[in-house]
């Protein structure tokens, strides 16, 4: 039905499910969905057979049907089109569908996620997710990037060892990937500009509205590129994603009640940039009790982002709180060349990125200091032996970005089947 505009005043046959209905003596209104859209079917007693009208009155929620009828414009409805039903053929009945039109608690809905996906709100979020995925491929491929897939089963940890998912790989240890970055760095030296887009896993014991155990990350990596140029790509990429959603998902945004004027502000680049040092000063001036060197939590990130109308880059964090691979600052030994992009409206960090350390000896030393085994990283260190170049990259968490773009209040809404601290079902 998403292509209803093509069929106005024409007769169509479509497969649908019933989401709700009401009827009087002479007319039945069926709320229908066909997987692409939610719309109304009108069954007028005098225009259909007695059996069809009876069926329209009796049919239960989520029964699947073939219907035929004429498509009409309907300016009063959200979708803008309805169907004047002529025939109904039941494909399969449904009884006692658990998700009724009344309100349900979040745990109940999450337990029924396999069914809840049929409802208009998750449906709208997943369609926007699909647009963001497609826009991501379009953006990077148009910019001359090549997609290089990183492995999911790995023997080394890019983001630290505390939140690794352990598994076995025949007779040795292995981990589920936390990030494809190290492999993308190899890719960048082979192909120039590369990106990966795959699932990543973090055994983080965090139960917040920003943390998933399994999430999807987009990780571009660019050879012969310094951090400033990478920031330029990052902001153009985010602005492009928002613009694509504005262009192609207006109905979904309306379903979600997402304010379009707010989103439009995010399509304007450049985004503001402040240093970590400035961020600390700003926080202190506003009553936050913290010292230089700490990492920001959700309240700090929310406050910082609230100072701007657009996403904001926070540059050059303390070396001690960032991973081993980041490039050291040329004149200070306490910070690294990196940036987190904080989304407005309380959504926090959506991108983490940096310029990468290129010097073999420095990197070797950092690996040892991080308590990692240089033997496991010898392939990665090779990249600094054979024509090492300045290179930069970043990682965007798909679900974090999507939660922000859709205006949802929890990252679990942004993935079809969320893996959370206490949930691996359904
Ligand atoms: O900041 P992070 O840990 O950076 C990296 O993994 C780098 N290796 C990326 C790179 O430079 N190639 O994670 C990147 C992003 C975060 O900004 C956030 O959007 C998302 O991944 N993310 C999570 N999303 C959902 N749930 C979690 N538990 C997440 N942890 C990180
Ligand atoms: Mg980060």
UniProtKB/TrEMBL annotation:
<keyword id="KW-0067">ATP-binding</keyword>
<keyword id="KW-0963">Cytoplasm</keyword>
<dbReference type="InterPro" id="IPR004522">
    <property type="entry name" value="Asn-tRNA-ligase"/>
</dbReference>
<dbReference type="GO" id="GO:0005737">
    <property type="term" value="C:cytoplasm"/>
</dbReference>
<protein>
    <recommendedName>
        <fullName>Asparagine--tRNA ligase</fullName>
        <ecNumber>6.1.1.22</ecNumber>
    </recommendedName>
</protein>
<keyword id="KW-0648">Protein biosynthesis</keyword>
<dbReference type="GO" id="GO:0140096">
    <property type="term" value="F:catalytic activity, acting on a protein"/>
</dbReference>
<keyword id="KW-0547">Nucleotide-binding</keyword>
<dbReference type="Pfam" id="PF01336">
    <property type="entry name" value="tRNA_anti-codon"/>
</dbReference>
<dbReference type="Pfam" id="PF00152">
    <property type="entry name" value="tRNA-synt_2"/>
</dbReference>
<feature type="domain" description="Aminoacyl-transfer RNA synthetases class-II family profile">
    <location>
        <begin position="126"/>
        <end position="426"/>
    </location>
</feature>
<dbReference type="GO" id="GO:0016740">
    <property type="term" value="F:transferase activity"/>
</dbReference>
<dbReference type="InterPro" id="IPR004364">
    <property type="entry name" value="Aa-tRNA-synt_II"/>
</dbReference>
<dbReference type="InterPro" id="IPR002312">
    <property type="entry name" value="Asp/Asn-tRNA-synth_IIb"/>
</dbReference>
<dbReference type="InterPro" id="IPR045864">
    <property type="entry name" value="aa-tRNA-synth_II/BPL/LPL"/>
</dbReference>
<dbReference type="GO" id="GO:0004816">
    <property type="term" value="F:asparagine-tRNA ligase activity"/>
</dbReference>
<dbReference type="InterPro" id="IPR006195">
    <property type="entry name" value="aa-tRNA-synth_II"/>
</dbReference>
<dbReference type="GO" id="GO:0003676">
    <property type="term" value="F:nucleic acid binding"/>
</dbReference>
<keyword id="KW-0030">Aminoacyl-tRNA synthetase</keyword>
<dbReference type="InterPro" id="IPR012340">
    <property type="entry name" value="NA-bd_OB-fold"/>
</dbReference>
<keyword id="KW-0436">Ligase</keyword>
<dbReference type="GO" id="GO:0006421">
    <property type="term" value="P:asparaginyl-tRNA aminoacylation"/>
</dbReference>
<comment type="similarity">
    <text>Belongs to the class-II aminoacyl-tRNA synthetase family.</text>
</comment>
<dbReference type="GO" id="GO:0005524">
    <property type="term" value="F:ATP binding"/>
</dbReference>
<comment type="subunit">
    <text>Homodimer.</text>
</comment>
<dbReference type="InterPro" id="IPR004365">
    <property type="entry name" value="NA-bd_OB_tRNA"/>
</dbReference>
């Amino acid at each position: 039905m998403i292509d209803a505009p093509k069929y106005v005043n024409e007769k169509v046959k479509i497969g649908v499910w019933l989401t709700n209905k009401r009827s009087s003596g002479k007319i039945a209104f069926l709320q229908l969905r066909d997987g692409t859209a939610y719309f109304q079917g009108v069954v007028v007693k005098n225009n259909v057979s007695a059996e069809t009208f009876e069926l329209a009155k009796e049919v239960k929620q989520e029964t699947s049907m073939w219907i035929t009828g004429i498509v009409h414009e309907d300016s009063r409805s959200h979708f803008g089109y309805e169907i004047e039903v002529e025939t109904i053929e039941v494909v399969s009945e449904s009884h006692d569908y658990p998700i009724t039109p009344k309100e349900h608690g979040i745990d109940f809905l999450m337990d029924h996620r396999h069914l809840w996906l049929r409802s208009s709100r998750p449906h709208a979020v997943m369609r926007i997710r699909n647009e963001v995925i497609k826009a991501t491929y379009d953006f990077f491929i148009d910019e001359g990037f090549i997609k290089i897939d990183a492995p999911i089963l790995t023997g080394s940890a890019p983001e630290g060892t505390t939140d690794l998912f352990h598994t076995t790989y025949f007779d040795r240890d292995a981990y589920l990937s936390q990030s494809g970055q190290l492999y993308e760095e190899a890719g960048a030296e082979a192909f120039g500009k590369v990106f990966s887009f795959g699932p990543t896993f973090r055994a983080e014991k965090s139960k917040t509205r920003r943390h998933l155990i399994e999430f999807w990350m987009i990780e571009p990596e660019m050879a012969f590129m310094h951090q400033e140029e990478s920031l330029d790509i990052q902001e153009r990429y985010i602005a492009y994603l928002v613009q694509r959603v504005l262009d192609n998902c207006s109905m979904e945004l309306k379903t979600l009640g997402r304010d379009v004027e707010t989103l439009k502000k995010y399509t304007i680049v450049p985004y503001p940039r402040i240093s970590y040092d400035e961020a600390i000063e700003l926080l202190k001036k506003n009553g936050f009790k913290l010292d230089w060197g700490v990492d920001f939590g959700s309240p700090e990130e929310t406050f910082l982002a609230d100072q701007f109308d657009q996403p904001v880059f926070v540059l050059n964090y303390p070396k001690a709180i960032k991973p081993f691979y980041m490039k050291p600052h040329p004149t200070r030994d306490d910070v690294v060349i990196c940036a987190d992009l904080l989304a407005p409206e309380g959504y926090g960090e959506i991108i983490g990125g940096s310029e990468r350390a290129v010097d073999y000896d420095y990197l070797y030393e950092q690996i040892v200091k991080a308590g990692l085994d240089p033997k496991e990283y010898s392939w990665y260190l090779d990249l600094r032996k054979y024509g090492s170049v300045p290179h930069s990259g970043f990682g965007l968490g798909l679900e974090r970005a999507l939660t922000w773009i859709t205006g949802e209040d929890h990252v679990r809404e942004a993935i079809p089947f969320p893996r959370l601290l206490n949930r691996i079902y359904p």
